[in-house]
């Protein structure tokens, strides 16, 4: 019925214990506005593959005008949600400008994390500092991986995907 506060009304049901209720919630959400898109992105993290896959299918119908909202979400959320977003990105017609903004935003976060880690080198050595530096390094690596994943999603040649597999390799020489 496209109630104006539909997302607010159905959002609590995304956490319902029954899979059928969560699936019905995903069905009720139409990706025609930002709140619904954010709710469907949350649904992509559902432990049920049927709910997750249906959320991905619903997001395939996103209007082109709202595609930047989806692209902006690529760098956040859990691994399961990010993988779903990159899977979805392969099917969507994102503009070069959207891809560039995403990559630049992710790289900015990565460089800021590295700069913060470097600034911490000037402080006295403590366990907390070491833990923070490790976290900042991991965050930077994750953002760079997001950029490569994003580029691989929009690369028709498949060369970036091959690079990504190399980066994920257990063999240090291949990396």
- The CATH C-level name of the largest domain is Mainly Alpha
Helix-residue proportion: 55-70%
CATH superfamily of the largest domain: Leucine-rich Repeat Variant
Q: Mean pLDDT, nearest integer?
A: 83
- Class per helix and strand makeup: mainly alpha
Global geometry:
globular
Integer count of domains: 2
Separation of termini? 52 Å
Low-confidence stretches: none
- The total of helices stands at 9
Number of strands: 0
Q: The CATH topology of the largest domain, please? A: Leucine-rich Repeat Variant
Determine the strand fraction and express it as a percent band: under 5%
H/E element order: HHHHHHHHH
Largest sheet geometry: none
Description:
- With 175 residues, this protein is an all-alpha fold.
- The chain has two domains: 1-94, Leucine-rich Repeat Variant (Alpha Horseshoe); 95-175.
- Helices cover 67% and strands 0% of the residues.
- It has nine helices and no strands.
- The protein has helices spanning 6-10, 19-28, 34-43, 49-59, 67-73, 79-91, 96-120, 127-154, 159-167.
- Helix 4 (49-59) packs parallel to helix 6 (79-91) and helix 5 (67-73) runs parallel beside helix 7 (96-120).
- The radius of gyration is 19 Å and the shape is globular.
- The protein starts with 5 loop residues before the first helix and ends in an 8-residue tail after the last helix.
- The model has no long low-confidence stretch (mean pLDDT 83).
């Amino acid at each position: 019925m496209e109630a104006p506060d539909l997302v607010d009304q159905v959002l609590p049901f995304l956490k319902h214990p029954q899979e059928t209720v969560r699936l019905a919630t995903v069905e009720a959400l139409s990706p025609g506005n930002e709140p619904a898109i954010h709710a469907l992105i949350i649904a992509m993290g559902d432990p049920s593959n049927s709910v997750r896959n249906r959320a991905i299918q619903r997001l395939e119908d996103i209007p082109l005008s709202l595609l930047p909202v989806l692209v902006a979400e690529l760098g956040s959320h859990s691994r399961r949600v990010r993988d779903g977003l990159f899977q979805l990105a392969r099917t969507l017609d994102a503009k070069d400008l959207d891809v560039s903004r995403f990559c630049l935003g992710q790289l900015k976060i990565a460089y800021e994390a590295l700069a913060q880690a470097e600034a911490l080198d000037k402080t006295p050595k403590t366990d907390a500092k070491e833990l923070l530096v490790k976290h900042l390094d991991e965050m930077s690596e994750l953002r760079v991986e997001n950029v490569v994943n994003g580029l691989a999603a929009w690369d028709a040649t498949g060369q970036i995907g091959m690079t990504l597999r190399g980066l994920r390799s257990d063999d240090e020489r291949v990396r």
